[in-house]
Amino acid sequence: MSPTENARQGGAREESATRIAEASSFLREVVTEVERVLVGQRDLLDGLLIGLLADGHVLLEGVPGLAKSLAVEALAGALGGTFRRIQFTPDLLPSDLLGTQVYNPKSGEWSLREGPVFGNFILADEINRAPAKVQSALLEAMQERQVTLAGETRRLPDPFLVLATQNPVEQEGTYTLPEAQVDRFMLKIVVDYPTREEEDLIVTRMANLGKKPRAKAVASPAQVLGARALLDDVYVDELARRYVLDLVFATRDPKAVGLDEIAPLILYGASPRASIAMTLAARAHAFLEGRAYVSPTDIQAVGLAVLRHRVIPTFEAEAKAITSDDIVRRIFEAVAIP
């Protein structure tokens, strides 16, 4: 490559870095506003923002009472988007989610009534309590960003983000999510208990009837779409791409990276969708930090959330109480960082 071409490319990257730094600045205001409501749980908030920027859905798992729903509602409020909460139950019907035809006896005409899925931020609360027919209805909305009602296809609003929660403790009366649907979630975030200091602040802030904080709009969905348009400008070099592929391929063939002992513990490794998701999520993580390039630390920051629901342990692993998180962490330890 000639010196002129090098200089031209260098100038273009500097220009991209400037645009990304400016475009990502509004996210700091969003974080500040959400943290007026949400105490701690910064990993959860970062995961929601990464999913939003990378146009990917997020699965949240944690015991009840850890502010999963509150985090989603606060983020929607700070971004000025429409928020819809759907409580999934065993008797839920697809029409309760998508909408239905309504007959008007006065005019004798049918009209379409849109369901709660028509919003920017959809909180599918306790998603694993809904039966398979509802899961399949949600699948089209998540993947295609559209809904078909009475033969008519309607586009969903943009941005459109499904944030689903599930309770890992109580499994009675629940339906295991189909693997095809789980794979549609870009990230799976496990929400843990707050620290003692954080919980003290939670009690101080939230144990006041009528005085609970609410997030106000400090940004708009249009700014989110503008940020997404710049995500492709975040540079991913060959070494970063190779690192992503090394990690994903290690889930399929752990012996190739010297992990013979965990090979019998993996039933299925991650699909190519994981490679795409990890690259997009790493770009979004770099964007959040105002950088115009992906580093290995970005990949490491999002890798567990991208892979933990895509690596399926064997019965042998379950008998030894070895989780997919344990397996993914071992892979990150074994794969060389470029």
Describe the fold and architecture:
It is a single chain. The chain has helices at residues 3-23, 25-34, 42-53, 68-79, 94-98, 132-144, 179-182, 196-206, 221-231, 238-252, 272-288, 296-307, 315-319, 324-334, and strands spanning 57-61, 83-87, 99-104, 109-114, 121-125, 146-149, 152-155, 161-166, 185-190, 266-268, 312-313. By secondary structure, it is an alpha/beta fold. It has two domains: 16-207 and 219-228, 3-Layer(aba) Sandwich (Rossmann fold), CATH 3.40.50; 234-334, Magnesium chelatase subunit I, C-Terminal domain (Helicase, Ruva Protein, domain 3). The strands form four sheets. Strands 2-5-8-1-9 form a five-stranded parallel beta sheet. The chain has a two-stranded antiparallel sheet with strand order 3-4. α3 (42-53) crosses α11, α10 crosses α11 (272-288) and α11 (272-288) crosses α12 (296-307). The longest helix has 21 residues, at 3-23.
What characteristics describe this protein?
Rossmann fold; Helicase, Ruva Protein, domain 3; alpha/beta; five-stranded parallel β-sheet; single chain; two-stranded antiparallel sheet; 14 helices; 338 residues
Instruction: Give the spatial strand order of the biggest sheet.
Output: 2-5-8-1-9
Number of helices: 14
Structural class: alpha/beta
**What overall form do the CA principal axes indicate?**
globular
Helical residues, percent: 40-55%
Major pleated sheet: 5 strands, parallel
Any idea of the CATH topology of the largest domain? Rossmann fold
CATH architecture of the largest domain: 3-Layer(aba) Sandwich
> How many structural units, i.e. domains?
2
Low-confidence stretches: 6-10
The CATH superfamily of the largest domain is identified as P-loop containing nucleotide triphosphate hydrolases
Spell the H/E element sequence: HHHEHEHEEEHEEEHEHHHEHHEHH
Estimate what percentage of residues fall within beta strands: 15-25%
- For the CA atoms, what is the radius of gyration? 22 Å
Oligomer: single chain
In total, the number of strands is 11
The first-to-last residue Cα distance is: 24 Å
Per CATH, the class of the largest domain reads: Alpha Beta
pLDDT averaged residue by residue = 83
